[in-house]
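Supplementary Text 2. Reproducibility record for the structural model of the 396-residue chain.

All settings were left at their defaults, and a single model was retained for analysis rather than an ensemble. We include the record here because the model underlies the residue-level annotations in Supplementary Table 4.
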Amino acid sequence: MPAGLIALALGGFGIGLTEFVITGLLPEVAADYGVTESTAGWLVTGYALAVIVGALGLTAATTRLPRKQVLVGLLVLFVVGNALSAAAPTYGAMMVGRVVAALCHGAFFGIGSVVASGMVARERRASAVALMFTGLTASNVLGVPFGTFLGQALGWRATFWTIAAIGVVALVGVVVLVPAVRAPEQPSLVRELGAFRSGQVWLSLGITVLGYGGMFGAFTYIAYTLTSVSGFAASTVPWLLVLFGIGLFVGNFVGGKAAARSIEGTLLVVLSSLTVVLALFAVVATSPVLTVVALVFMGAFGFATVPALQTRVMTHAEHAPTLASGANIAAFNLGNALGAWIGGLTIAAGLGYTSPIWAGAGITVVSVALTAVAATIGRRHRRDAPAGGTGSVAIV
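Retained model, structure tokens:
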């Protein structure tokens, strides 16, 4: 694999750390600012919504710019946002910092996915995308637990200052290792928007929203589930997140290999398994031992979907993948926002700290049905395409 993929993974590590570390620090942040759990959860939801804006707006605005320069600029924005978060004197200021950092997230992974897939042969694209997203999984295996531990020991602000420093390292890595490769065709916003004439692109986005949203909705309030339901001490949460991160890492690797063979088959199997795991997790959450097992499997099946989801949308927007790729990153985070919002509603309604997990299972089962519909339509279209004339524009 090209060294540039390692640099992209390094950038993904820093950005993933910003997104996920807040979940382990929500109790500390809520106490510091004197807000409720559900209000603190808006730091997750607000971030996710800002990712959507950045994924679509910044990707569209930078379509004609060299991709490497765009990636560098996005990492600068990332560093600034985390520095603002670390220094924020109020909850509102903290939200501003989260939003600024989030604006780079979607565009970085969207453009980075296109750059990564362009570095390798066609048959290795899913593996290349998976390698880039390894940075995201590594942020959970190593970064999130360490960040949670650091925040509990030295205060949550120390965690965000550390993330800003990691962003600087990632910035240097992209500058040094990512080649300034020109796109095969002159980028055009009109051409990129044309990708959304494909119904399969829209179906891919819907699957991403629901498939990822179910897992993340359950994960957003995981610190409360682990301490208030499973009975773990707050000091053990970072180490439990290590196990969750190991699940993510393994799932991303296996999911990338499986997606290289069959995208549709991978999604159907993995999303169905994730639904079962979430439902079982909600049932066994009072058992510390079974909670640990469920946490690992939730991470594994939750992230095994990512290479297939990202590759699927780029496959159906092959001639103009940049904006569609960014839109799929937006869809990931729309799912994050949806899951966190619904989970917060269930807690606010007094349904307990396992209710976000049940809600996640419900969201995920809908994604299974949508995947089956998309696969059926795709097979029918491929079967009918030769008799349909040109078949040049996918409208299904």
